[in-house]
Amino acid sequence: MKDFAQLIKVLDSTNKTNAKVDALSKYFQKAKDTDKVWTIAILSHRRPSRPVNTTLLRNWAGELANIPLWLFEDSYHIVGDLAETIALVLPKVVSQTTKSLTSFVEDMILLKKKSDAEKKAYLFEQWKSLNYYECFVFNKLITGGFRIGVSQKLMTKALSKATAIPEDELAYKLMGNWDASSISFEDLVLKEDNASQLSKPYPFYLAYPIEDTPTKLGAISDWGIEHKWDGIRGQVIVRDAAVYVWSRGEELVSDKYPEFQQFIGNIPNGTVFDGELLAFTNGKLGSFNDLQTRIGRKKISKKLLEQTPVILRVYDLLEYEGNDIRSLPYIERRELLSKLLSNLDLNTLPLQLSELIRLDSWEDVAKERVRSRELQSEGLMIKKLDAPYGVGRKKGNWWKWKVDPLTIDAVLTYAMRGHGRRSNLFTDYTFGLWDDEKKQLVTFAKAYSGLTDAEFRKVDAWIKKNTLERFGPVRSVTPHHVFEIAFEGVALSKRHKSGVATRFPRILRWRKEKKIEEVNTLEDLKEMIS
Amino acid sequence: MKRSPLLEFNDKGIYCAEADVYLDPWRPVDKALVTHGHADHSCYGHKKYITHHSNVPIINHRLGDINVSGVAYGEEFTVNGVKFSFFPAGHIIGSSQIRVEFQGEVWVYSGDYKVENDGISVPFEPIKCHTFITECTFGLPVFKWQPQQDVYTDINDWWVENQLNNQTSVLFGYTLGKAQRLLHGLNPEIGKIYTHAAVENMTEILRSQVDFPETHRITKDTKKEEFLGSIVIAPPSAHGSPWIRKMTPYVTASASGWMATRGARRRRALDKGFVMSDHCDWYGLLAAIKATEATEIVCTHGYTEIFSKYLKTIGYNARTEKTAYEDEEAIANEKETLS
């Protein structure tokens, strides 16, 4: 645990990628094998499920620190991180632990099934024997989510440096469902071929955004165009008479989308599709908002399945007749995809082809992009015809050229403190628009991004001086500051007080010159619904 | 007849109506008793300033030609029958608490303070009173300081480590107070100590009061090559400015109480954060308040709502008052310009 805590400390205390890679690869070179496996698991969001709920954690931490619960809660809102708050309020102790990371994780797996009294006794024992940083890391293992600026890509890079195995190969090995408590480092990382798992997905290839115009990409004849559909990126695997659906977050979501079970028997074994999961009702493409009714649900009722069926709009083929074809040029993969689909009855399957569009000039591409909203797409994808399917986000062969966002002027009405690097700063804002009579402000969206650090500091200072009321961590403020809010789309919603839901709202700019009387109305927003 | 409280909070500052004087006013007044030299406590434009002797050269430097007179710690003077005296606050050099007594009733206004002896300012002295007006910049139980010597050891170790990696160490601390406290703890045997002009100007003024190690002012003519392996003390506003590029390759750190939380350090994009404050931590505040034996506590700047709520739960009559005081870092970021 000492070494792991030290590793996390180093990773957490530098902003430099190279320093992080160095620290991680050194750790991978000297740690014992089971600790390595757990480190990979933890840094790729595969930690064991939470053994103690946070309410109990807060109560017990407050008790050991000898402070009232409300004071612990208030401190937490300001620090912005539960694991850190606990470590900060507990009495300082000198480290006495000699246990390994693996043995701590094993404790936690067993702890989950124990009684509250046993859990409390275990936590008190650890809290009294770990120094500040070890205690923080220990709490993180319990509460989950090590957000310390270590991406999967960075971890893979460090592991590659430590083992001399190429990054892309490692990225593939680390995909899918593996169990850190049973797999060995040898099987997970070192073995030549570990693709024995049927459900194993390929790493997703991700596009870079085009900032202004794509003309710099060269001859249009080298590029294929697709629309960028607004759903969930998904990989659907058909192998050995079973279907596996993976979302981009490397989450196995087969149970959430039972419609794809129809692929069994209809689509040949040894097929892997890359595409977009989309809501599709009565022959019409649904909005992202429609799809949202499906995303959070674990149990899918028959009614919901009828109301909001989901389809896969497929645009790439990664495995064909049981062979990994990612190294083939995009155009050849598309040809195999068309061939495969031509043998299927697409009217009976939740499967559609995302059309590959070939255009003669970049002007035509720009024209096609203008049609995006009408087609319910977010913009265009521009893909190099002769390029293989890559791993992760790499510049060069795949580009996304999104439509310009919709915008509206709104007023800041509520604010909450942020988390992580924004802890103790009011950076999470709620915005309001005028109602029809222009008498009342109706909140319609929350936004957390889009201002510079300097602007956030200014707004934060203003909020602290212009608070009207406090509701726990939330403050209402004098309506005064106007911001231009950008969003990708807008739809009617029963779940929102305003009756509308905006997609990915963020702050575009601070309109210091505008007065609150000039803010848009809810009616203006509703008119944007397509 | 019931008279109004001995000290009141109005839109200009903390006011003593009986004597017609202000303590640390933030708007221009006739007579101002000033606790220390930070900009939010010693503002421009008063007709008369009264402060501790050690603070006189500081506010003269910051405010220019003002009418100021100095008093010694414990020296009592009377205005309209109200007795005033200054006592050490341990915040920075020349910082004071102000004791106010009238008809047997005693109030103490803490200004900014810390209870640890930093070796460069006269240490905080608890003064018995009925009402204690306290700051609570770090009034949360998550703030717990380590002994100063431990932090100095960490800073010097960091400097040595950077030197071994052929890097320059750039350490941020606000110009008045933190910069000198850092200088006091640096080991000059490790290497040369450079200072930003704003830090050097202030330090020069304070050299007559405290012994500091030798420093080198950074000017236009300072050569890039000279910096390697040395340490640079600069105000926080220098972070991310073009001024700092000359020190490349460098690593940055800040010394501040705010460095206690990871978020604050990450937000500032620093390589390292040393937890060192010129304010009390949670335990320091509680100990200081207890030592005054006061039953009435007024919380001014900092986590006032939370801190006063806690004081009530442990038996004090606590309340909050709005002031224009802030923590130094916020002010340093806004007001200090590069020269």
Q: What report would you give on this structure?
A:
The complex is a heterodimer of chains A (530) and B (339). Helix content of chain A is 34%, strand content 24%. Chain A has 530 residues and is of the alpha+beta class. Chain A folds into three domains: 2-143, DNA ligase i, domain 1, CATH 1.10.3260.10; 205-402, 2-Layer Sandwich (D-amino Acid Aminotransferase, Chain A, domain 1), CATH 3.30.470; 406-526, OB fold (Dihydrolipoamide Acetyltransferase, E2P) (Beta Barrel), CATH 2.40.50.140. In chain A, the strands form five sheets. In chain A, strands 4, 5, 6, 7, 8, 9 and 10 form a seven-stranded mixed sheet that branches. In chain A, strands 14, 15, 16, 17, 18, 19 and 22 form a seven-stranded antiparallel sheet that branches. Chain A has a four-stranded mixed sheet with strand order 2-13-11-3, with helices on one face. Chain A starts with a helix and ends with a helix. With 339 residues, chain B is α/β, with parallel strands linked by helices. Chain B has two domains: 8-142 and 278-335, Metallo-beta-lactamase, Chain A; 148-274, Rossmann fold. Chain B contains eight helices and 19 strands. Chain B has helices at 56-63, 148-164, 178-185, 197-206, 262-267, 282-292, 304-313, 328-335; strands at 8-9, 14-16, 21-23, 31-33, 48-52, 68-71, 77-79, 82-88, 96-102, 105-109, 131-136, 168-172, 193-195, 216-217, 231-234, 250-255, 272-274, 296-302, 317-320. Chain B starts with 7 loop residues before the first strand and ends with a helix. Mean pLDDT of chain B is 92; it is low at 331-339. Classes of the chains: A alpha+beta (530), B alpha/beta (339). The interface between A and B is medium-sized, with 32 and 24 residues.
